[in-house]
Design brief:
about 140 residues; mainly alpha; 6 helices; elongated
């Protein structure tokens, strides 16, 4: 029995960059203890490394999207990332709710709006009620 060897596909350019941002990081090969300071220690040395990093934003995006609770990522400490994530979540929900209200005003049904936004029909009705819009069908 002969089997065909597996085919390896290459990723598109943006995906290749996203997958290899760590290879380009200024912290590559650095002492990890610098990026995971103990309680009461300064994050200053890690911030200095991050300041010269060409992939600062992908690093920060990775830490926020994966909810990494420890260490310095993208030049920010855990507390700073948590505050940034909270603001980002609020802004994202606010934008989503505005779009849902616009769809309700345009006459779309709650089921159709829910499918578009990945929400339940009940959630769409709740957003409409809080936003003061007429209840969608």
């Amino acid at each position: 029995m002969t089997a065909r060897p597996p085919r390896h596909r290459t990723l598109a350019a943006p995906a290749r960059f996203a997958a290899r941002w760590r290879e380009l990081a200024a912290c590559r090969g650095a002492d990890l203890d610098v990026f995971f300071p103990d309680r009461g220690e300064s994050a200053g040395p890690a911030r200095q490394v991050c300041a010269a990093c060409p992939v600062l934003q992908p690093c920060l995006d990775y830490a926020i999207s994966n909810r990494i609770p420890y260490g310095v990522w993208g030049g920010l400490t855990e507390r700073e990332r948590r505050a940034l994530q909270t603001r980002w979540v609020r802004a994202t929900r606010r934008d989503r709710d505005r779009a849902v209200l616009a769809a309700v005003a345009a006459g779309f049904t709650a089921a159709a709006i829910g499918r578009s936004f990945g929400l339940s029909r009940t959630s769409v009705i709740r957003i409409a009620r809080i936003g003061g819009a007429e209840r969608p069908r």
